[in-house]
Amino acid sequence: MDIKSASFVVSNSEVEKCPKSNLPEYAFIGRSNVGKSSLINMLTNRKSLAKTSGRPGKTQLINHFLINNNWHLVDLPGYGYARVSKSSKKTFQKFITQYFSKRLQLVCAFVLVDIRHTPQTIDLEFMQWLGENGIPFCIIFTKADKLKPMAIERHVEDYKNIMLETWEEMPEYFITSSSKSIGKDNLLNYIDYLNNN
Ligand code: GDP
């Protein structure tokens, strides 16, 4: 799939105010600094469609972008920012829970994970929650340019081993680098496939 048009639609903090249309949507979520904005900009061929926040973890907004006039790309806030207080963690959880439970247009959640790190509890727990709530998801490994091919394979293998302790199979996954434009076509073709099935 080629992205011919990408435009910002709306940012808001309440799922009720998300666009009413029934266009299929795909959400992108992950720990702060995982490379989510860079990935969205790579996918849409824009330099700054998704903006990085100066204070990660502070802006808790659901951002809708309209792509090719036929699907929504949703940029969700980053989680796991160390300096966020307990109460804002709770608010965040509620906010995210509501988005995922109420947004019936959601076709797939893409959970971004930095390929350099060993599997992190916060990401594993989040994916566990998605699975338990019947929300389809895939993993996007980011920043693949930072590792050599052998190390990429080893890190993905670590993930597989840990995921297979709870899941029957490894979810669909993508290896990407926004700086080297790796994984873009695979990801867009997958979205295209889901849009047509
Ligand atoms: P976000 O907070 O998840 O939206 O992350 P950003 O897209 O703002 O990226 C966080 C940092 O990681 C920035 O310094 C980016 O330049 C860097 N970054 C993002 N993607 C890549 C990538 O694919 N490769 C490398 N080497 N750095 C990246």
UniProtKB/TrEMBL annotation:
Q: Which SUPFAM superfamilies match?
A: P-loop containing nucleoside triphosphate hydrolases (SSF52540)
| UniProt KW keywords | Cell cycle, Cell division, GTP-binding, Magnesium, Metal-binding, Nucleotide-binding, Septation
**Magnesium keyword on record:** yes
Give the function comment from the record.
Necessary for normal cell division and for the maintenance of normal septation.
Record domain EngB-type G: where: 22-197
Q: Which PROSITE patterns match?
A: G_ENGB
Cofactors named for this entry: Mg(2+)
- NCBIfam families in the record: GTPase_YsxC (TIGR03598)
At the top level, the lineage of the source is Bacteria
Q: Which GO terms describe its molecular function?
A: GTP binding; metal ion binding
Tell me the organism. Answer: Seonamhaeicola algicola
Q: Which gene encodes it?
A: engB
Q: Which family does it belong to?
A: Belongs to the TRAFAC class TrmE-Era-EngA-EngB-Septin-like GTPase superfamily. EngB GTPase family.
For biological process, the GO terms are: division septum assembly
Q: What is this protein called?
A: Probable GTP-binding protein EngB
